[in-house]
Amino acid sequence: MINFQYLRTTSAKSAIALLSKDKNAKFLAGGTNLIDLMKRGVSSPDKLIDINHVPLKQIEQVGNKIHIGALASNTAVAESALIKEKLPLLAQALEAGASAQLRNVATVGGNMMQRTRCGYFYDTEMPCNKRKPGSGCGAIGGFNRMHAIFGTSENCIAVHPSDMCVALVALDAEVILANAKGERRILFKDFHRLPGDTPQLDNNLKNDELIVRLEIPIHPFSKNIHYLKVRDRTSYAFALVSAAVAIELQGNQIKDVRLALGGVAHKPWRLTSSEAFLKGKEATLENFQQAAQLAMADAKGYGENDFKLKLTPNTIIEALNLAKSKA
Amino acid sequence: MKNLMVKDENDRVDGVLKVTGQAKYFAEFELPGLTYGVLVTSTITKGKITGLDTKSAERAPGVIAVLSHLNKPSAPLYEQEGGSPMKIFYTDKIFFNGQPIAIVIANTFERATYAASLVKATYEKEAFNTDLHKALKDAAAKKLQGQPNYKRGIENAYQTAEVKIEQEYNLPIETHNPMELHGIIADWKPNNQVTVYAKTQGVKATQNTIANVFKIPLTNVQVNSEFVGGGFGMGLRTWPLEIATVMASKHIGKPVKLVITRMQMFTMVGNRPAATQKVGLGATKDGKLTGITHTAFGESSTYENFTEGVVNMAKFMYQCDNVNTAYTIVPVDLGVPIWMRGPGEATGAFALESAIDEIAHALDMDPLEFRIKNDPEMDQQRNKPFSSKNIKEAYKIGAEKIGWSQRKNKPGSIKEGPWQTGYGVSIGVFNANRGKASVKGVLKADGSLLLQSATSDIGPGTGTGMTLIAHKLLGIPVEKITFELGDSSLPTAPSQGGSATLSTVGSAVNDVCVSLKSTIAELAANSNMSATSDFISVLKKNNLPSIEVNKESQGGKERDNYSLYSFSIHFVQVKVHELTGVVKVSKIVSVGDSGTIVSPKTARSQMVGGAVGGIGMALTEESIIDHRYGRYINNNFADYHVPVNADVPEIEVHFINKPDPVINPMGAKGMGEIALIGFSAAVANAVFNATGKRIRTLPITPDKVLA
């Protein structure tokens, strides 16, 4: 086996200190993706810093925000009474992800950090600019049925596989990051990156930083919400397209709305122009259809994923329909 | 609620062992000094190995040996010239990507895994093709006749029929993917005695292959395989990786365990090959079939030919005077396929049973009515009566249970919100086999019965079925009956495949029990006991601790006079989402017509398993290759989608349960294959009924529904 050092720590401070000592160290939380990557030879850290005992598992209301510790498990968040009441869209998105067994150990921070499931990324015998910059993109011209239609580059058309992150970007979450000097916060929508010329970078986390927690403002979106995940089988499958929808209705008028997509881009994909279009309008099928078309402005298919050009607006419409119809 | 701890005589005899983890599978055997093998596989698709650097692997911690074509570990058959081209470690040729080219043996699995990653091969690459469709377009690509062409009446008669359809149907590669990974433990002793713990569907077949390759007497090879974690056909041969492990054990003089990875399960232990088929059907305006033409092309490999019964069903399943079929195999640069549940018939039934639905639609007829109208009275292919066939009754039961009367003949008629509902039906058929098997029975004065045979149980419940046959004949309580299998030293039995085990081995169990019964009756008479005396008192009276009977059993000439088939009818209801293209199978009724049901619970389980496999074939399963590289893209359980519980609705199973008068003493026909055959067409037909969209390429994923 490829030897690596395993370290365990019980505080965020010491975790950060350990990380700063070794460029090729990685934090280990649930390990549901990292261990696979290590087995496949995609990732070979010298040092694994086990942070599972760091007390960052809180799920609590602080003022008008919900705080979720980076090490809270996906199951703990999805099943939390507080989340179900205040952020039901997040609970729904989490429940749509992975399998019960994976959710039990996967953490919020780990979910954000998971790598793409693009098959070329995992096969070290294939080209992949994300794994090996400059080696080419196997998915372009290859098997790209699962791949992105928004924000792609000639270097990478991979998608971020998370469901949770789609709900978080819709809900205006913020991410609190810490390094030895202190904490900083960035908007969730700015956490993940588009591939551009640096497909090897999934996000803007710096290599001396630890994800500490999420802060999510409490919205009036408690009733008319829906997370719709379209996939090849009913459970334990990544999204072909998913849509997170939250509407605040006044009668049939849309007072406020949030829309985001999964399975279509290198990052969770917020639909701000569709939101702006819908705000103040009647919640009618015609308006939903127009909002869905607006979302498709810059979409581009790569052959096998061309069907997403039709499935994506349909998914948006259906998610809006389902959110609206919740009594 | 039913108390599950209360035993039912129909329970699986090994159920408790399985659910409590006491059933021991091959990889769980711990032998003293056990070592671990890991395979190195080719990263090119076709060509020649020009160099293999094993030095760093050999120097890695814990490594005992690295074996490859460079050191040709001893295997006398392979040392001869000629023979199979895929003689592992005796060839430098690469026939497919992921082909095993070396085995690294170390004192731990992790060390072997690491060392295997250090073996570096260099290759001389050749142009290759892994794509069936590309080969079909290429006139220069090799194509071989897979089965003699068949014709009765006028060739292509459908073309001149009053009403006709002609369509092409495509299936991707499906991979068996049983939960249990493939592999073997081999323990070669200095006296050339070898014991293996295998994952096999035939302990005797494995024994034969090993004895043959290593040129040792059959009795020197002991094969153990009591429990198998799913086979679906992939355990029907001894693969090169198993030979490699035996070679390794012989070479290092220690037991070696090899368990391959999930990724390796896609390349080196076979698959259901991709196929493309054309079906032409012609009928009179009032719905009588006048012509059937079924032509099929199936993938095979370049180093071994693989054929299966893709076009068999067209020859006899419907009353029709004009039928012609052709089946061609197309070698591509992939590992050789192997039978997968319902083998070729499942592939062919998707095409034929979809086409039957298509012509019924073209006639504006209820497809069920069309089927009944064209149900054959006798087997026109062989010009023989069927030994038993209750298809019309099965159609009736299934139609009633699924609620066929709710179905509208016009597609897209039933809609609730965005969900469209449709109904589909299809038929499955498979040869009702019976082979030759031996069983030993020992009836003991303690009231117990021991039965032994070198058969296998890959999951259907062989031991349970055999126990119930004996129980019914002798009246011995099931808990007093033990059926031993999965051991090559037991009386000979064939491999478990082709739905033949219950018929074949069960007949021998029957003969053993009949013989024991008459021996007891004889003993009773000779010792002046009444004819109704129980066997325990008879044995005791005669001072016999036990009596033993050995029987070999096989069928007679019944096949000369009859056609023997098992049948199934699958009814499904689906719901299709008009915006997302998602298909949900919402109701299933499968009706089995396979003679007497010997073991009702495990028979039901077979049908349930077949339906689940059928959902996979219809909606989710596809092994995807990037043909530019010849490598699989979705070779893991996250991306190769076998159905999950949430995909599977309640499955209603019904059996005709009428004895077949000729097949065997039980009147029972096999049913492992029919549980799956035809199912995918029932789903496709239901999707058409729901939406008006005919999807002729499996699996029916949302993108195809939306297209």
TrEMBL record, chain A:
**SMART domains assigned to the protein according to its UniProt record, in alphabetical order:** CO_deh_flav_C (SM01092)
- Any one GO molecular-function label of the UniProt entry: FAD binding
- What name does the UniProt record give this protein? Xanthine dehydrogenase YagS FAD-binding subunit
Please report a single Pfam family linked to this protein: CO_deh_flav_C
Its source organism is: Pedobacter rhizosphaerae
Q: Which residue ranges does the record assign to the FAD-binding PCMH-type domain?
A: 1-221
* PANTHER family assigned: XANTHINE DEHYDROGENASE FAD-BINDING SUBUNIT XDHB-RELATED, XANTHINE DEHYDROGENASE SUBUNIT C-RELATED
Look up the coiled coil feature and give its residue ranges: none
Question: Keyword annotations for this protein?
Answer: FAD, Flavoprotein
Q: So which domain of life are we looking at?
A: Bacteria
Automatic annotation (TrEMBL), chain B:
Q: Where is the signal peptide?
A: none
**GO MF annotation terms:** iron ion binding; oxidoreductase activity
Q: Which domain of life is it from?
A: Bacteria
Q: Which Pfam families match?
A: Ald_Xan_dh_C, MoCoBD_1, MoCoBD_2
Domain (Aldehyde oxidase/xanthine dehydrogenase a/b hammerhead) spans 20-127
Q: Which InterPro entries match?
A: Ald_Oxase/Xan_DH_a/b, Ald_Oxase/Xan_DH_a/b_sf, Ald_Oxase/xanthine_DH-like, AldOxase/xan_DH_MoCoBD1, AldOxase/xan_DH_MoCoBD2, AldOxase/xan_DH_Mopterin-bd_sf
Parts forming coiled coils = none
Q: Which PANTHER family match?
A: DEHYDROGENASE, XANTHINE DEHYDROGENASE
The molecule here is called Xanthine dehydrogenase YagR molybdenum-binding subunit
